[in-house]
Design goal:
Belongs to the GerABKC lipoprotein family. Its main location: membrane. This protein has two domains: 197 residues, no CATH class; 170 residues, 2-Layer Sandwich (GMP Synthetase, Chain A, domain 3). Helices cover 29% and strands 32% of the residues. The protein is built from 13 helices and 13 strands. The strands form two sheets. Strands 1, 2, 3, 4, 5, 6, 7, 8 and 9 form a nine-stranded mixed sheet that branches. The longest helix is centred in the C-terminal third of the chain and has 30 residues. The protein is globular.
Length: 391
């Protein structure tokens, strides 16, 4: 009996609540943070929730009636956060921050040290997404939304759609720091900008910034970013479209993709073998061709060449222009040759730039869809109709 009472008493002591809890009425919840260089100082902008009793935003895709964007110049991020209390009238709570935007002016300097407090302060979360922009970060945070009430939430939700596209490379702060502390210390960050679409201003994820020595040294376009995703084995889905001629096109919807990288190092001479296997379903078929094994073989070869061209264009930019390795080639070499790596680590980017790379792509259609014939093909037989009750 005494033992049971002691256990119950200890359990009650553990249910005393959070010692460092904050009342929502006393804090401003930050969901997006922007940092840029301005007059040799740090320009800090934050997107915070605007408390309201109204339901929803302003409609028509505006959606910015639920947020406030504040800016403050400071010498450090922490100083800026404290200074913004003067305008917000509340203490800023960064525990809900989903997006961090780095302006390009700051990105071309050693911006990683500016972010030091993110890892040091337990209030900040490392599963937030990181971006670099050539716009003013506050303009990004002020952009009208299409679905969400907060711009930062909408941007973060877009990165969850990587299973449908392969031309941008999302990265969290935790993954970013993991790259910087890895064997090579290079990294990549997606680019975000503002575009006009049918007269409406929207944010657009377009391209990838290449990070070397804690600075942005260049940028990959959308096509080169797709090649980077193949090299990183990050392709989860999406589609590949190839042309047979000016009018006829065929698309493969990717169901499965795998890239393996093997390296052969002899002193400072590096040879790389990249093998990619792709499996998918026939999606768009804008042709009058008969769908058979010969048709598939022809398209599979074209898709393989298409993917190889994407990878080649990425490697050309990284090797010849930027001389920066942000692929799996460096980590794979480190894993294969751990002892030799210590002697070549400081010269790795130059070794990577001179590496010979062989690429082998194996694309396969595993399903032709619901019908076997093209809809444009004449003299189709009745048994090719997947809808037997229609005429």
């Amino acid at each position: 009996m005494k033992r049971t009472f002691f256990i119950i008493l200890c359990s009650l002591l553990l249910l005393t609540g959070c010692w460092n809890s904050q009342e929502l009425d006393n804090v401003a919840l930050v969901h997006g943070v922007g940092l840029d260089k301005s007059d040799d100082r740090l320009n800090v902008s934050v997107e915070i929730i605007k408390p309201t009793n109204q339901q929803g935003g302003q409609g028509n895709g505006q959606g910015n009636g639920q947020h406030i964007v504040l800016e403050k110049k400071a010498d450090t991020l922490l100083e800026g956060a404290r200074g913004l209390i003067r305008y917000a009238k509340r203490r800023l709570e960064f525990g809900h921050a989903r997006v961090w935007l780095i302006g390009e002016k700051l990105a071309h300097e050693d911006f990683v040290h500016v972010l030091d407090v993110i890892r040091r302060d337990q209030m900040l979360r490392l599963n937030s997404y990181l971006f670099i922009t050539n716009e003013n970060p506050s303009d990004i945070l002020n952009t009208s939304t299409l679905y969400e009430n907060l711009t930062a939430i909408e941007i973060a939700s877009a990165l969850e759609q990587t299973q449908f596209v392969s031309d941008y490379a999302p990265i969290t702060l935790r993954e970013f720091y993991k790259l910087l502390e890895g064997s090579i210390s290079n990294a990549y960050v997606p680019m975000i900008s503002i575009k006009k679409v049918d007269g409406q201003t929207v944010t657009s994820i377009d391209g990838t910034a290449v990070i070397k020595n804690n600075k942005m040294v260049g940028q990959l376009n959308a096509k080169e970013t797709t090649g980077l995703n193949w090299l990183l084995d990050h392709v989860e889905g999406g589609s590949i479209t190839v042309s047979l001629n000016e009018k006829e096109k065929v698309s493969l919807e990717i169901n499965k993709a795998k890239t393996k990288t093997k390296t052969n190092l002899s002193e400072k001479n590096l040879h790389v073998d990249i093998q990619t296997k792709i499996e998918g379903t026939l999606a768009d078929n804008v042709t009058s061709k008969k769908i058979n094994r010969r048709f598939f073989k022809d398209i599979e070869k074209k898709i393989s060449r298409h993917v190889e061209n994407d990878i080649r264009s990425t490697l050309k930019k990284l090797q010849q222009e930027l001389k920066t390795d942000i692929t799996e080639i460096g980590p794979e070499t480190y894993r294969t040759y751990p002892k030799q790596w210590q002697n070549i680590r400081s010269e790795w980017n130059d070794i990577f730039a001179n590496a010979e790379v062989s690429i082998h792509i194996d694309a396969n259609f595993t399903h032709e869809g619901l019908i076997k014939e093209s809809v444009h093909r004449e003299h189709r037989k009745p048994y090719n109709n997947p809808y037997p009750f229609s005429k």
